[in-house]
Amino acid sequence: MTTTTSAEPAAQAVERHLLTTVGTEPARATPLDIMHATAQVARERLARRWVATEAADRAARARRVYYLSMEFLIGRTLGNALSALGLEGDLAAAARAHATTLEDVAAAEADAALGNGGLGRLAACFLDSMATLELPSWGYGIRYEFGMFAQSIQEGRQVEHPDPWLLDGSPWEFPRAGIAYTVSFGGWVEPGAGPDGGPRWRPAGAVSAKAYDMVIPGHGTERVSTLRLWKAVAPSHIDLHAFNSGDYARAAEFKNEYENISWVLYPNDSTPAGRELRLRQEYFFTSASLQDILARHQAEHGRLTNLAEHVAIHLNDTHPAIGVAELMRLLLDEHGFAWEQAWDITRRVFSYTNHTLMPEALETWPVALIQHVLPRHLEIIFRINGEFLAQAAAVRPGDHDFLRRLSLIDENGERRVRMAHLSIVGSHKVNGVSALHSELLQRTIFADFAALWPERFVNVTNGITPRRWLAQANPGLAGLLDERIGSGWRLDLAQLGRLGELAGDPAFRARFAAVKHANKERLARAIHAATGVAVDPASLFDVQVKRIHEYKRQLLNLLQVVARYQAMLAAPGRDWVPRTVIFAGKAASSYVAAKSVIRLIHDVGSVINDDPRLGGRLKVVFLPNYGVSVAEVVMPGADLSQQISTAGTEASGTGNMKLALNGALTIGTDDGANIEIRQRVGDDNIFIFGLSAADVSALRATGYQPLRLYEDDPRLRSVLDAIGGGGFSAAEPGRYRPLVDALLWGGDHYLLLADFDGYLQAQQRVDALWRDPEAWVRRSIANVAGMGFFSSDRAIGEYARGVWGLAPRS
Question: How far apart are alpha carbons 181 and 523 in whole angstroms?
Fold first, then answer.
């Protein structure tokens, strides 16, 4: 088969691939066929850039950054690849020649099911920026065969299904047949059995990690980066003896026991087997990645003693934290390093991003489980901990509480390994992801570490890639920006600041509003297609789209929706602002309370949407199976962005950035990156309400009494009585009693009732501004203009210079 050259017309290359790669008559090609052929055209051209990039890095013996993450939520790849190659126009024409559109062709591609929420989407943005800033960089993760899960809704309930995104294959994968590493588990450790008299690990089993690569193109550059994903492959495919004996189930049992490691993201951890599988997953991809990094370094340098001079390894949260112990094991047991030298290299190589302030969300593993799955690593962790505590004791002699708080082992109850502590001790830099988050890290959960090593802690506020979240998701607005301020904002988002002066131009405001309305019409069509509910694009589109979790407070949003509903019934003649409240997000499969909130959203929506007394002025919808492609439709169509987490719980957030970048006004608490968004867009262009992080701490310290708020506020009492008494679940009146009881009698941990009144007041300010369309558009423009700081290019530049020791292109 011939290959394309860059001189070959793109449309001609598509025709060739339809025939020779897809194997179909071009005249009969479906959008799926055209997608695969178009992807092959992009793949060929990106592969040339890829090979050239790797050759240049090898020749330069470049210092590289390796980004280890459990998730990479990259979404669809075709549009981003064509944008990086500058082929959108040519291939749009090729699509039209087949009586379709490039949008329909791109929609035929499945979202890559490699992540779930903000952690994975952040990692994907960061890879885009690493390539765009020309950093020698690799991402490492797992090639999940079925993703986390595909979400459907049946009678209001979330139902989880496998997400078979690889069913028809992916045109973007490059299987690396010659690259595989053995990852071992279990067994025991023999003292003195190693070649140098040290301990030797005798594993009980092993799995092969097979490499699959995906190309990550840079924009405005020929450079690309690599995302290497690992698939678990059993040492032997089946037990042939059992198969020939007719025991077909047992024949496949051995294969499935190992290969299930790369089947599903975040398997249900409510059982011992699920928890063990999660630990195996984390170790599997981390070990394979570290073995690959060492092999590449040795091939280029012939030794590992200079590893820290040429390698930076970044831990995206604690899922790869076992890498600290694994790198020590590899250097000690496989490469014969002395402990002191191995530890010096390890500490200089690793850096760590923390993503949570909630102690209950910090990952820990039972000592007994690690002993069972990774016995050698537990020995290494114990020694790291012993030496670390000895150093800490010298700083504060006799302060046993200080040592207890610092210890890598939590001795309260079941002994557990604290993975965040291991990450901090084993890294040379630790960062939070917003200014408030980083400040609170050092003042609260990691205060003792910050006292020991103040220079180790830094802040890098999160960012998003404008290529995906504005240029590709919102072509109407991108085209308007190109026309008025030029296209340079794609690589320098700070140029959006020039929009501020255009807010006073009536013609620009009119065109900006027209783009927003067109995006809302597109979103309304998507809502109707997914839910069957017709919504009015002229209504205020009020959006809360994110993982369903109690601290994100979707329930607080529902409380105000019910309050609005009750007020509308009580005053039907009032000039109510028409509003469409849009929810989307997945709840973890074992998270009962979050799944109950999803069902309540549907029950509230069923009552409100069918109530003729409202005249269609209030609608509530839930978009199922939220992911990148759904977000790319939601973000441009949103008017109001709900960012209402309890102050001090959200590390940063990136949905807040995506929505504001597309012109939505934020209603939110002073939490995470909301604070920095407020500082950048101005207090008049955002709706902030509720307790601050300091207020939250003070309220909890003095004794929070949610029942008193219920008794003193008739609106709140009416709302909770309706929800808890079956007002939205007549067939099962007690269905939501547990949710209400958790607020009234369970302590209302996330302070929904404390913020209820302030939230309703903020919503009144929203209504007042919406009634003045010209003022709303001005503030929407101000939000876009203020978002220049929140580019992932800026964030990666800060990581490169301040954490990884690399020089990004200017």
Answer: 45
